[in-house]
Specification:
alpha/beta, TIM Barrel, 8 strands, binds 1,3-dihydroxyacetonephosphate
């Protein structure tokens, strides 16, 4: 039997392991990501965010879904729709409902609505609309509260300034209200994590080493009471990642760490670039995330693998 993404993430949350999501900005990256997950007996989500078909080369929701159907392995992977913003990184309004409705109709197995650039009540209202829609498909909804910065093209404050001032960090009180009123299943929080840059000039730059405010995370975990998500997974010290997993992080998003080796190696041809992704993935799964054999834990109780 098929174990759905929500129960997998809940099992991870309860067992202190993490489900990573990997962004696919170029379609040929998907096969080596799936192969590495299978070869390490790990479980992960294959993800696409709107900006990856708008600003990179993942083409469309349909193209990603079709590629996924070719390479998927239900024992090791599920398909997730990452950031669909209500207001995007260029401050443009997005028809988020239409995009998410298309993804659900195409068979995406979990979706993210990102209302984090809205005031609290508007974020709650947009998220609640998507929760209502997704329930019809029995698909879980990830939402975001607080500002995980980095995708914007304008200048950012220095990382140190951001961390010390806690600018944009998710407030535990707001998280509590948000979860109750929106009905979201998983919550992406801002606790010192930042996204890797995506602007043409920033894409290949090394990401600043991010830290995690573990005290803020512990408070959020108590307040939210649902699985928490850590975006900007590239370049965070593994010690922070492992402590964060113990404090409620059940899903971690990783993009830049696998995109940069792909882009750098692409001049040598697609197979070489795919190989670079595969090797980076194995390293990440084994050593940074330490989730080799996570499938055994995640599917242990029920053996609900198709
Ligand atoms: P990084 O590119 O910083 O790993 O972040 C990925 C992410 O959070 C996508 O939602």
């Amino acid at each position: 039997m098929y174990k759905d993404t929500n129960s997998i993430v809940h099992t991870a949350w309860k067992s202190g392991i993490v489900v990573p999501g990997f962004n696919i900005p170029y379609l040929p990256m998907m096969a080596p990501v799936v192969n590495a997950l299978r070869d390490c007996n790990s479980f992960g989500l294959i993800m696409v965010a709107r900006l990856e078909w708008e600003k990179f080369e993942s083409k469309s929701l349909l193209a990603i879904r079709d590629e996924y159907e070719k390479v998927k392995d239900v024992k090791h992977t599920r398909l997730h729709l990452d950031h669909v913003p209500v207001i995007d990184e260029d401050n443009q309004l997005v028809d988020y409902e239409a995009i998410i409705a298309s993804a659900l109709a195409l068979g995406y197995e979990s979706v993210m609505i990102d209302g984090s650039r809205l005031p609290l009540l508007e974020n709650i209202a947009s998220t609640a609309k998507i929760v209502k829609l997704a329930r019809r498909y029995n698909v879980p909804v990830e939402a975001e509260l607080g500002a995980v910065m980095g995708h914007e093209s304008g200048p950012l404050p220095s990382y140190e300034e951001l961390f010390v001032s806690k600018k944009g960090f998710t407030s535990p009180e707001e998280a509590k209200q948000f979860v109750v009123e929106s009905g979201a299943d998983w919550l992406s929080v801002a606790i010192g994590n930042i996204h890797g840059a995506i602007s043409a000039v920033g894409r290949q730059q090394e990401k600043p080493k991010a830290r995690i405010d573990l005290e803020q995370l512990a408070q959020l975990n108590r307040a939210a009471g649902i699985p928490l998500v850590l975006h900007g997974g590239t370049g965070i010290d593994p010690d922070y990642i492992h402590q964060a997993i113990k404090l409620g992080i059940a899903k971690i998003n990783v993009g830049t760490a696998i995109r940069q080796p792909y882009e750098r190696t692409l001049p040598q041809g697609i197979p070489a670039a795919q190989d670079a992704v595969y090797r980076t993935m194995v390293e990440l799964l084994r050593h940074e995330l330490q989730i080799e054999n996570s499938v055994n834990m995640l599917f242990k109780q029920t053996h609900e693998v198709k």
